[in-house]
Amino acid sequence: MAGEPGAGRNDDLRLAETLRAGDVIALSEVYDTYAPFLYDYCHGLLRDRVEATGALRNVIIAAREHVERLTEPDRLRGWLYAIARKECMRRRDSPNRHTGQEAPEADDDLTPEQLARREERRLLAYSAVAALNGRQREAIDLSARHELDEVDLCGVFGIPLEETLALVEKARADLATALRAAIIAQNHWKDCPTVASLAESWPLSPQTAASLVRHVASCPVCERQETPPLPPDRLLTVLPIAAIPTDLRLDVLTAATAEDRAGNRRAIAAWIEPFDEYGWPLPYEPTAPRARDRAPRRRAPLLAAAAVGVGLLVLFGGAMSWLNSGNNGSNAAATGPRTPGDSGSPEDSRVPEETPTDPSPTVTSPSPTESKTPSKSPSPSKSPSKTPSTSPPASPTTRAPKPSKPGTLRVTGCDMDDEDSCTVRFTAVGGPVNWRVTGTSGPVRAGGAGHLDAGETGGVSVSRSSGFCLGRQSGSVTVSPGGSVTVSYRC
């Protein structure tokens, strides 16, 4: 990870042993040593600072409750990441998860020239990482930026060591190939019309990055291009780090030690169970849907017709969803770091302590390649719940209500002036609208998707590039189905 590396094996061993002894001072030292790194990792998985804050708090609590299970205390650091991943997967599966507030980036004391060079390398890093699949991105992030070795990754992912070694080797090879393709697109786009058409907008999207890699591998012109040596692992250190809230330390340590919160701590600790024979948490699995306790009772024809109508409205409202950065089931849990947008006030990053309602949930793995222990094969991915295929017949004289007609999206641009971001606003007119950001041009970045009911207003945060510039700059953001709007700022 960018910045100072984490604690060494000796520090892991010392902290694990003092934590086992119930030393409160050791708990604060564990927080000071690992929390900034763990918060950045949780934020990378959850993309929301409120959720990342709650996840980190639960990680520290669960670690204190379960540290005696760890048979290799010198691997405390990797063990904490395994707990963090399981907690983040549990939160991702929650229908009530908080979304839309990414953490600000940790500050760096850099000159304008250094910021411009870093921005250029970030564009390369984003574009190269975009060509990887989700599991590869997470493996590269954990090994290159968070400095975990293959044995730690084996415990974090819950897969056999042989599979972990193959995953890391393939991810590094694919990253090197993608990085070379991105450098060719950045420096030699004039030499190949296909590359020029693919590299019109930076950073490259996952689909464009994958197409570029395939093209470079088969193009005789691109094959002859020479690229400067740029170690992929070193390149990733320029990616942004999510800034941990300054007031989180007291909140976490209080939640982990206060006598009146013992019940919550026991329930939070139960969420991380079960563990394997080495004391590492088994991968998370979603709770299976509960079977109906009794057969459904028959309904009158009028009520049946109303139920059908409501079902149609619900299905219509949720018919579209946006796929972010090309991630699928396991990929969604493995998004590489990207520039976080600072939305909302710093106080929004605090999350009220959860009141656990199910102290012993059933847990299983969320991704297609995860397994329970290093000696077992990957577990299958979660299958979608079935939708009832039949409904009671409606009355011949009663018609089900028709779903609402889709509306249009009115989009308004914004001006950052001297600020770092602004919000593009849009309103659903004449009916519900499913919207998503389909692209940007110029020195601005934005992304997102969602649903608006008729008359409802929403927005998406747009940030500007951090490179050096003079005067007034402008770009555009394209929101489907509304179209493109202008975003400007002053340097």
Structure description:
The strands form 2 sheets. A 5-stranded mixed sheet has the order 2-9-8-4-6, with no helix packed on it. Strands 1-3-7-5 form a 4-stranded antiparallel sheet, with no helix packed on it. It is built from 15 helices and 9 strands. Strand 8 and strand 9 form a beta hairpin. It is globular, with a radius of gyration of 25 Å. Helix 2 crosses helix 4 and helix 3 packs across helix 4. The longest helix is centred in the middle third of the chain and has 27 residues. It is α+β, with helices and mostly antiparallel strands and 491 residues long. Among the domains are: 127 residues, no CATH class; 83 residues, Immunoglobulins (Immunoglobulin-like, Sandwich), CATH 2.60.40.
Give the arrangement of secondary structure elements.
Layout: H1 9-20, H2 24-46, H3 49-66, H4 76-92, H5 112-129, H6 134-145, H7 150-157, H8 161-187, H9 193-198, H10 206-218, H11 220-223, H12 232-235, H13 248-257, H14 262-272, H15 301-317, E1 408-412, E2 414-415, E3 421-429, E4 433-441, E5 444-445, E6 449-452, E7 457-464, E8 472-480, E9 483-490
Parallel strand pairs: 2-9
Antiparallel strand pairs: 1-3, 3-7, 4-6, 4-8, 5-7, 8-9
Key terms for this structure?
five-stranded mixed β-sheet, four-stranded antiparallel β-sheet, alpha+beta, disordered N terminus, 491 residues, Immunoglobulin-like
